[in-house]
Specification:
Strand content: under 5%
Radius of gyration: 30 Å
Strand order of the largest sheet: 1-2
Order of helices and strands: EEHHHHHHH
Largest sheet: 2 strands, antiparallel
Number of domains: 2
């Protein structure tokens, strides 16, 4: 006995299409699927051609939205498009993450260039903070956070090293000029920084010992 996969109607005299749909469901579903597939294909082309981050990301979202609608048919065993909607969903979740990571790479490269040209230590730190804020925004959007967490960790490490070097350079410059009080202040800032960061002091023992010796020497 023939049974329509979508509406569930059945009967000995009911005819169904090769997709398992009765004539009424075929009449209703065909134009819906055709329109959804047109939007998906247009979005795929835009993702390939566009260089605009927001356009590419929004088109991924549109593909996922329409693939989710078509997933209803797949769950009922109706093959409406090839690849299947579930395959589109898997592919474009990954594609969405890829687009975000590609744009993060571009943003990071721009920040690196500005960092090199920064005229003051604070300006350098500001550039690092800008990309860290951007990462926080992207982390809300991305599904697989493995790679972005790795990038964030590397940038935080670089920021930590940069800030420490800023204190060291300021202290050495002050020492060179005979400004011992100013040098002492900078070494104390560096020590406070190391003692209150998120890194276990055991892993920063050499720097801490070095700074404490400098402070002791300058206090004599």
């Amino acid at each position: 006995m023939a049974t329509c996969k979508y509406c569930g109607r059945r009967g000995f005299f009911l005819s169904v299409s090769k997709d398992g749909l009765c004539s009424q469901c075929t009449y209703i579903i065909t134009p819906i699927v055709k329109n959804d597939l047109r939007i998906i294909n247009e979005s795929i082309e835009l993702i390939k051609k566009s260089k605009n981050f927001n356009t590419r990301l929004s088109r991924c979202d549109l593909i996922l939205e329409f693939a989710e609608k078509l997933l209803e048919y797949e769950r009922k065993g109706i093959q409406v498009i090839t690849p299947a909607p579930s395959e589109f969903i898997s592919e474009y979740i990954d594609m969405r993450d890829k687009i975000i990571l590609e744009n993060l790479k571009l943003e990071t490269e721009k920040s690196e260039a500005k960092f090199e040209l920064a005229s003051s230590p604070q300006a350098k730190i500001n550039e690092i903070n800008k990309i860290l804020l951007k990462i926080q925004d992207y982390k809300k959007e991305i599904k697989d956070k493995t790679q972005i967490n790795k990038v964030e960790k590397e940038i935080n490490k670089f920021k930590h090293e940069t800030q420490l070097n800023i204190y060291f350079e300021a202290a050495k410059k002050a020492e060179f000029k005979g400004q011992n009080k100013k040098a002492l202040d900078q070494y104390q800032e560096a020590l406070y920084f190391l003692k209150n960061d998120e890194i276990d002091d055991q892993f920063q023992k050499d720097n801490i010992n070095k700074i404490e010796k400098k402070i002791k020497d300058l206090e004599l």
